[in-house]
Design a protein that fits this description.
By secondary structure, the protein is an alpha+beta fold. Helix content is 25%, strand content 10%. It has helices spanning 15-28, 60-65, and strands at 38-41, 46-49. A two-stranded antiparallel ribbon has the order 1-2. A hairpin with a 4-residue loop joins strand 1 and strand 2 (46-49). The model has no long low-confidence stretch (mean pLDDT 79).
């Protein structure tokens, strides 16, 4: 996103947050699924959908509440 190519309106999402969301979609997707990451832009939000599910044993409710723990000790986990 070069600044001269962008228009003067305020960004819906800061560029660093958008880049991180795209990176997360790439890193955490299920590469065994033959599908694409989908990015949809609306006037009030951006949706990024990445192929795959939550890790086995984690419910959507636990995920949304932040009630998860890391099984991989080599990865930092905020609890």
């Amino acid at each position: 996103m070069e600044s001269e190519k962008r228009d003067s309106r305020e960004d819906l999402v800061p560029e660093t947050a958008y880049r991180e969301a795209i990176a997360n979609a790439l890193i955490h997707r299920d590469w065994s699924i033959n599908s694409h990451i989908r990015i949809s832009m609306f006037s009030d939000k951006i949706e990024i959908k990445s192929p795959g599910d939550l890790p086995r044993g984690i419910s959507a409710e636990e995920y949304m509440n932040g009630d998860i723990t890391c099984d991989n000790r080599s990865v930092s986990c905020n609890e």
